[in-house]
Design a protein that fits this description.
10 strands, alpha/beta, 21% helix, six-stranded mixed beta sheet
Length: 181
């Protein structure tokens, strides 16, 4: 049976990960975070725009005291990272002495996460960890960057759905689709 395909702005994507598998992975990440932070009142920094879907699902599992704030970075043009990070919406909350968990949709090169970690470090938090729905370790270019909490390790393909986009399209899709052509 052929996999479902969709077209977004002239590019073809094929369904590769189902919503039920995504939600199962999110639940497992929530369990790990709960074990590590239930007594620490962490600050979750959600990276917009892509991580909003993952963060919404993840944070509904969090039943202990925490705070949620947002940051916005930009590094993509089309399907490629530009390698240049722009901080559009910085974190303005006081995180001094607090445990911080960055929630990101996908970590590939690691440049955006290193940029954000460096910016947050200037406020002297107790700790900063990265939680990403997806991680492509073979594409990582930042030496020593640790992604502590990972929902799924994904293949090399460019993907859309579950908050991930192509030119701001496809974020609303419940499943994940991989670029075919």
């Amino acid at each position: 049976m052929a996999k479902e395909r969709i077209t977004i702005l002239g590019k073809t994507f094929e369904k590769t990960i189902l919503e039920q598998d995504i939600l199962e992975a999110v639940g497992k990440v929530a369990e790990q975070i709960t074990a590590d932070y239930k007594d620490k009142n962490p600050v979750f920094v959600v990276v917009l725009n892509g991580a909003f879907v993952f963060a919404g699902d993840l944070l509904r599992h969090i039943t202990f005291p925490c705070e949620i704030t947002f940051a916005k970075l930009k590094s993509y043009a089309g399907i490629e990272s530009t390698g240049k990070i722009i901080g559009i919406l910085p974190v303005t909350e006081d995180i001094s002495g607090r445990h911080v968990v960055i929630i990101e949709d996908i970590v590939e090169t690691g440049y955006s996460m290193q940029f954000l970690k460096d910016a947050l470090a200037q406020q002297h938090p107790a700790s900063v960890e990265i939680c990403a729905f997806s991680f492509k370790p073979e594409k990582l270019k930042v030496t020593g960057l640790e992604v502590k909490y990972v929902g799924m390790q994904l293949p090399e393909a460019f993907i859309v759905g579950y908050g991930l986009d192509y030119e701001q399209q496809g974020r609303q899709l419940r499943d994940i689709y991989s670029l075919v052509n």
